């Protein structure tokens, strides 16, 4: 969205987005390498779009398109709420990264990103890593999230998890009067790159942590490093457990009607994108007295980290910016109370306000006008 157009429904309105409101969608195919990718630029109202590249075995191209539209819209709101001068974009590569990912494919993808002339900066996401971004960067100038050896910020999951923890602390203060999870039971669904770091923050804070993951290797790694963590067999068992906080940290759509019905947690705060399975779930959570910390608010630490790389990366500076997620979460919760709306709606309003007020000064971002 730009300042010249009305705001589209926010990312918390549901995961079933359409292309309406997106500035640009690019389909990328390279037959020699097997590359099939989609790049979606939702908004450059605040600056060039920045968002990671997801490498995932979608069942069909239509599924990949739906995902990249949802994710890119969420990135616009995430950047706006984080106070960054960046827009929202995302890319997906269709296929199993374990079998399809090659240097040639990543470099071919880099050439497509380069062809956009800086309107979209890419970074890591599910299925891609900093080492992959180094390969993309051999063909492209618009890459963040690179390895430290190549002047980058490294793994963005570090500050993603840190930001989720800050949002969880703010939610705990609103719910129980103190910004700590000490003595609380937190259930984490998904202990991959982000969830694993989040477990460490919570254990260090004195929380009891219960986890599940479809990847047995991820569970084994957590249990080896932190034997105090309890493992349950699946997400159904986790959400039915006695929890104070539920943290969805895998893929989107985690908050369904069935999950909300059985959830005992007083807080939902996790790293997954697009957690609300459909429009109206945010109201169901509110009606049940469950405080929902909007996903794109609390998981913006990774975006903050890779965005800082564009200035010449300083971990201390990026961490200080990610720490402010605590204050922004309080602002969202306060606005929700004042206006009598769910926090998801309040977060959308704050993000849209910034895109509207700043974006109207800029319009569509072009490299020559930066």
Automatic annotation (TrEMBL):
Please list the GO biological process terms of this entry. amino acid metabolic process
Q: Which residues form the Glutamate/phenylalanine/leucine/valine/L-tryptophan dehydrogenase C-terminal domain?
A: 154-363
Which Pfam families does its entry note? ELFV_dehydrog (PF00208), ELFV_dehydrog_N (PF02812)
Q: Tell me which UniProt keywords the record has, alphabetically.
A: NAD, Nucleotide-binding, Oxidoreductase
Q: Which InterPro entries does this entry report, sorted A to Z?
A: Aminoacid_DH-like_N_sf, Glu/Leu/Phe/Val/Trp_DH, Glu/Leu/Phe/Val/Trp_DH_C, Glu/Leu/Phe/Val/Trp_DH_dimer, Glu/Leu/Phe/Val_DH_AS, Glu/Phe/Leu/Val/Trp_DH_bac/arc, NAD(P)-bd_dom_sf
Active-site annotation = 90 (proton donor/acceptor)
Enumerate the residues binding NAD(+).
190-195
The GO molecular function terms of this record are:
nucleotide binding; oxidoreductase activity, acting on the CH-NH2 group of donors, NAD or NADP as acceptor
For this chain, the family text in UniProt reads: Belongs to the Glu/Leu/Phe/Val dehydrogenases family.
Q: What is this protein called?
A: Glu/Leu/Phe/Val dehydrogenase
Q: What is the protein's species of origin? A: Nocardioides iriomotensis
